[in-house]
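Sample entry (623 residues):
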Amino acid sequence: MCGIVGYVGNNDACPFLVSGLRRLEYRGYDSAGIATLTAADGFRLTRVAGRIDLLEKSIARKPMFGTIGIGHTRWATHGPATEENAHPHMGGNGLVSLVHNGVIENYESLKQSLISRGYLFKSATDSEVVAHLIADTLKHLPASSIANNSESIDRYVEAVRQSLDQLRGTYGLAILFRDQPDLLIVARCGSPLVIGVGKSEQFVASDTSPLVGYTDRIVYLADHQIAVLRPDSIQVQHRDHGKIRPDVQTLAAQETEASLEGFEHFMLKEIYEQPQSIRNALRGRLDRDNATAKFGGLNLTPQQLRSVKRIILTGCGTSWHAGLVGEYLIEELARLPVEVEYASELRYRNPPVDTDTLIFGITQSGETADTLAALREMKRKGHHTLAICNVVGSSIAQVADGGIYLHAGPEIGVASTKAFTSQLVVLSMLALYFGRLRFLSYEAGQRIIRQLEQLPETIEKTLECHGQVREVAAKYASASNFLYLGRYYNFPAALEGALKLKEISYIHAEGYPAAEMKHGPIALVDENTPSLFMVPQGAVYDKVLSNLQEVKARGGPVIAIVDQQDSHVMSLADDVITVPQAEDFLQPIVNAIPLQLLAYEIACIRGCDVDKPRNLAKSVTVE
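Predicted structure, serialized as tokens:
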């Protein structure tokens, strides 16, 4: 969601701050701002409601100088998208400036206390409260409480620490002080921050993308840690353990991964990257000798995994849809009961969960607040938690007891594409692994491995349907409602297809099991409401065909995704998109391609911002 950047060093801060905010645009935002600091002039602040283009124009009119600064892109939570609510926020009559990602749950009581002490608020945000709180704490912090009774950096760190102790909620903070023009303090609790280590300069960002090209040495800040950054030094301390040695890692991301490389949008580029992202997810994980899959990060022995009696898959949005496919996969191949839970509900429900239950959190970013909280709650109750995520060093990767990385590469478009299909590939391998631990035969395991190995080439052939999809999109782009219908493995695919259309084209769309049409949704069918059916050859082919004919009988236009040789459905549907034939368990991956392309093409025709759809954020780091 909100993006944070920061710099302290010997060079002008502004170029990095603007560049960093540019690279964080994919997270979604509605306002942006930058603050720089010099000893002579104090703070300079520029904020806008709108895109970074406006921020750059404002800076061009009134340049910002200083070798230290912070920047922010905001996704509105408290208060609308206005310049007053944009970050950075000032506290204590210009004593403190900060940027914040997260939600302060007790901000209202803190705000009233600060107002009673004479502090004036200019925004409706919870973040401004933190700025005033730190300024107030610093003002009242007696010098005698600091070692050696000196007015040192320690006093400012102590002011931050005492202020954080009063906060309830989540935060990623980057803080500047007017009287310390070479000091940047950052703090984290539930909202990601990464420090980039340079030569006589230090960088801060919400994720690694702004750091690429500036440094290849990074430190992932963990929850309840505070980092004190100066041009030539980094000090990290933990709330409970005092000073700790920062774990400096190597940043492996390549700058080219975040470029369009000739594609019009990142979403389209990422759709076309799926043959490779699927290869990456499979690489090194298929064990032909034993007809199974293998994973290096589960941190459980085969004996422990064989004793698992139940699995819970939890996630949000697209990851929840992947979990539904995973439920079908694991129950069919491993005969192991699976429940799929919305993470936002699981964190507050108190379901009976046996001790031999394994919890998987599914997330692209590894920062989804609801999924993170659900895993923490399950872990607190003593259950083993595992993550399926795409971002090394993310919060969920750190909290979980183990997990599996997708290796899909950076996903910039807000609407998930390649991460979704990579999640399905990983879940397919998990189902194979658990199946071989339990009842699945060697021959069946070998057959599944062959099918998975052929999948990247199948997806390359599937992308050839783009021309057909473009024609269908042109025909139905003006529709106000869509129905997506499938059965068996293609029911979750229908949900995901509908979500993609909603996310980027703003057309109302709903996904249903095809047989459920006659239990209510068929009332929506008319000549202006297209119904998209997935009708691949397989176990429920005849059943879906009957449901399709029910819609046709009521005059509704029908779009069908079918196998390339299926002439029968072609004669029934108004429009057809053909894909290669695939086994039932792989059909959601194959069918995801035309569904993603359809949403993309319709959004383009309607003039929507494909990569940054309104009101959405890539990493949903607030509840």
